## 1
Amino acid sequence: MIYLEHDQLEISCPEVHEKARCSISFQRTLRIPDDGRDYPLPPGLGCFPLRHLDDYAERLPDEWVRRGGVIMPMFQAEAMWLNFGGYSAYPFALKIATGKVCAITGEHWINHLNTDPQDYLVLPEQPWLDGYCVEKGVIRQFVAMPLGKGYTVEEQLTGSAQHGGLQITAYPMKAERYEAMRTRVYGEMDMAPMAMQSPQEEGMGLAPGGKMRQEIYEDDYGLDAWDQRHPVRCFVTIANSSQWMAITGERPPIEPPTAQHYTEAGLPWYDYYDADHEPVSGSEILKSVKSVAQTSKEKGETALPDNESINGTRVVTLRDTRKRKVREYSDSESQDT
């Protein structure tokens, strides 16, 4: 089952194991420059709000209602990353797609796990995902762009703007495998007000932005470890700011600071390495996809404001993955620094 709590997706599979739980939040963040350089990890600036799509069914296009799930707001050219956590360290295999295109391999969506190439993440080893896996140890940041303009990965690889949003499927570890592992390694320890207008059907999709240093780890457990009989699925629809206000009556969060303003304030960027796990190779399919800046240049448009390169970043190497979850930022910090 999947439920919404404090703007997080809480996933639970009690039919598999009482401890089979994990959570996913969608973090607001800086959009890194799309300039061909590799940047460190930007901070988390708090969760995007999430709402049950069914609560607003009468205001939504039929296609949105049919696929269900949750809805969240993003401004055009805004960036995001996915944070993984939970009250237990129960392992999950997690598939992430945008517009029904796998964010790890660039392949079309399939309803099972695949290891050749690996098309899923492994939790809790993978603490977060910031974008599309384009090279070994390098991703291109998730950046929101309107469907139908040719920017999204979905449109570039399928020629269609049919789905948009994100698609998530979680597969818990088999109970017997978990119990054997826990007994062997841990003994019996516990692991730790606006005018309402009907929105247009066109929503938002995700496109590849700037390049960032981030590893996607190989599955050390093996394909047989995962219980594929009890998947948990969720469709995350992305609405632009006008659609969000028309649907929910709420204002979206204010736009985050630019990467330049954040860096000038002396605030940290991050690096994280896990020497115990080998990263997967990047996807040749996703490597060939054009970034927002590249597509924008070809179209003669200005799709990415404030895309200047950043120099002199202060980088903090993380030892505890929780420290990246939320880095609060306010305009007063830049004025006082």
## 2
Amino acid sequence: MGVFERFSNDIGIDLGTCNTLIYVRGKGIVVDEPSVVAVEKGTKRVVAVGAEAKRMLYKTPGNISAIRPMSDGVIADIDSTEKMIKYFISKVIPRHQLFKSTRMKIGIPSCITQVERRAVIEAALKAGAKEVDVIEESLAAAIGAQIKIDEPAGHMICDIGGGTTEVSVISLGGMVVTNAIRVGGDKFDEAIVKYVLKNHNLKIGLQAAERLKKEIGNAISDKDNTIETMEVRGNDAITGLPKRLEIDNVEVREALKETVNRIVDLIKQTLGETPPELAADIVERGIIMSGGGALLKGLDKLVQKETQVPVFVADNPLECVALGAGQAFELFRDMSTDRSIYDNLND
């Protein structure tokens, strides 16, 4: 370990649309909280961050605004993102360690633009990082899933986050083929909201849709065709009055069908673009799924059925990107921050 590494805080961040996870070298995952910030209007004073702020979503009085600064895997509000990162970092780095240089490696979707990439780096620098690098989420997820990415063999990873889904074929430490779409867990929730409104004239919130997804959401029926139900509450679209409704897992599966199929099609597309030699490795080794979307019941079975390739969910799908981003310091020692961003911030 070099002198700089010994006196630095090395941090890996999964700056997700739904949740932010932070990995600190030597400590593991130290933060896993919703990507939500509540600020006082006018003064912009931070009222709450993370889990506490999420409880305020859609319930705040006129003088407080609770927002999600990340959207579709990218920064929608750079000031709030900076405050969120700074808050989380202050929770995990003691004051007496502030003299150390803080290096951050942040997972980003491969489909983002150069402007969006620079926004991520700028937010991290303003939050106090001395050195910042970004790493594609699927590459970070592969590292976090303990895939031996430096082998001369093909490995496929499908990372389904809150805002994006990224599918990559990795060999010799790099991505040979990668495809990404701005579809993830948020689109699952939105699809459920639209289905319930269209088929039951009931307006429900995104948080209610998220609970439906987590508790009875599914991508394929099980062998026994088990019916599960859950009560959901909202407002009648016609009368505007409060209303309760029982929704079953068959309806939730139908609501998610179109969005799930887009992810399956992305995996098929990536397989079709994979060189034959690497495709043979994938058939033997299987597809690894990570991210919160990988936890949708039956999604791995549906992908396996549609591709005829074995599919496995990573042991820690929610933590893979943050773990991989942090562990990447050992694999990729160069910090490649765009120096022009530093120059602009220091002007």
## 3
Amino acid sequence: MRKIITAPNDIENALAQQGFAPIAGVDEVGRGPLAGPVVACAVILPEGFVIPGVNDSKKISEKRREELAAKIKQTALAYAFGIIDPQEIDEINILQATLKAMSNAVSALEIAPRIALVDGISAPNCACEVRCVKKGDSASHLIAAASILAKVLRDNIMRELHAEFPDYAWDTNKGYGTAAHIASIRRLGLTPAHRKSFCKGVFA
């Protein structure tokens, strides 16, 4: 009988009992926007440790994400990021950019994990074993923690880009294709922070 996951770290506990430790959770944000990088995070928390409130970053308010990100960083044994810029996304496509960002994040960890739990169905190339978890940011506490750190970092990057290119309102839309963002592209053109391969349809 297949085990039903009822606790936020059931997957991690089961793997730890099988001798897989330390375990890293890995997630990415920013696959869909028209502008900005794709950002991945890998995080290792103390075995069995649960931070109350950690969940899929998309289900948490911005203020709460920032509060939780601070707690995750304080608690984590290690965390690291992988960032792929828009130019490279255009060169290698978003799937390969996402996998590279995840791989880079795992490689940058100061503690080498025995296994990496990755959100989704595509496995990045890592030195450790990789296990893909569908809807992992809801099923795995570690993946959810990684999603929060990645989201907070990417949002901060988009605010910095907004200061450089204020006409595109990246402080609020974070690079996604809102009606106002698309209107600004049509009026002002593309910036170096735009993904040209994502914006072709804007001018159609």
